[in-house]
Design brief:
InterPro entries: BP-dependent_transpt_permease, MetI-like, MetI-like_sf. By secondary structure, the protein is mainly alpha-helical. 77% of the residues lie in helices and 0% in strands.
Length: 301
């Protein structure tokens, strides 16, 4: 090949690369504009709250440089004021510092429980939607029976079997939420599999695995991601509820449910011990719920 031909080949390759980059950039800009328009003012505020919680989880020292476990008995039960924004607890620990540092544990266990539920839901949902008829019937019956039970009651049942602790509570909440994800995924996957564009692709000779990767997977995972965002907020509430009941994280852990458990005996005299972590749970769960609902509007139909 001559030098001129090599240069022409290089120019064509560079042109194709630039064209792909421009196409991807245009798609990203259109998707970002659609996302911003779909989120609206409420969605943007929710996204801001979620980003703040994530920042507190990843870099708690940036928002609260103090030690969440440092005790100062002489400063116990101080009400909210200039020296302690959210007051202090029975051991003189700063409640604001503990709430900020507890974001990592609360968000982490909520995300872990949701990941377990989504992972199991993917296996059950895709197995029921794409498997043979007998497998669909068997898995569908199992999913419907588990879905009929209230998720929190199912989580309590699983914790009673697995034992108390952070790990068992995360696993219990994840297993309890899996039937809901599986049910959503099965219905969505079956709809996509029988859609005209998948049928057309199969008639054109596209193999079943390739059709799954190109069409079924992208059009089922995005709605599940939107639902998973909702699920993280729900999982935070349920794991906190288990900790409040003494079945999850225990004091002196700064996990929000454990803080509620520690402050419940002083709710009439030191209300800030329960109000501060309770507000954190409410704000995080509400923001994730609203963000998940807005994201579901962006999902492909």
């Amino acid at each position: 090949m001559s030098a001129q031909q090599e240069n022409e080949s290089d120019h064509r390759t560079a042109g194709r690369t630039a064209g792909r980059a421009a196409a991807v950039g245009g798609w990203a800009r259109r998707w970002l504009r659609r996302l911003t328009a779909s989120l609206g003012a409420g969605g943007m505020v929710s996204a801001g709250v979620v980003l703040l919680v994530v920042l507190a989880a990843l870099l708690p020292g940036l928002l609260a440089p103090g030690d969440p476990t440092a005790v100062a008995p002489a400063q116990a039960y101080q009400p909210p004021g200039p020296g302690a924004v959210f007051g202090t607890d029975a051991s003189g620990r700063d409640v604001y510092t503990r709430v900020v540092h507890g974001a990592g544990q609360s968000l982490g266990v909520g995300a872990a429980a949701t990941a377990i539920g989504l992972g199991l839901g993917l296996l059950l949902g895709f197995g029921a939607a794409l498997g043979p008829r007998w497998l669909d019937g068997a898995l569908s019956r199992v999913i419907e029976v588990l879905f009929a039970l209230p998720s929190l009651v199912l989580a309590l049942l699983l914790v009673s079997v697995l034992g108390a602790g952070v790990g068992p509570s995360v696993l219990a909440v994840g297993l309890a939420t899996a039937p809901g994800y599986a049910r959503i995924l099965r219905a969505r996957a079956r709809s996509v599999v029988h859609s005209p564009y998948v049928t057309a692709a199969r008639l054109e000779g596209v193999s079943a695995p390739m059709a799954f990767v190109r069409h079924v997977l992208p059009n089922t995972l995005w709605p599940l991601i939107a639902v998973g965002t909702l699920g993280i907020g729900q999982a935070i509430v349920w794991v906190s509820a288990l900790s409040y009941l003494g079945l999850g994280a225990l004091p002196p852990s700064p996990e929000w449910g454990a803080m509620l458990n520690a402050g419940r005996l002083h709710i009439t005299s030191s209300w800030w011990l329960t109000v501060a972590p309770g507000l954190a749970i409410t704000a995080a769960a509400a923001a994730l719920t609203m963000l998940g609902r807005r994201l579901s509007a962006v999902a492909p139909a």
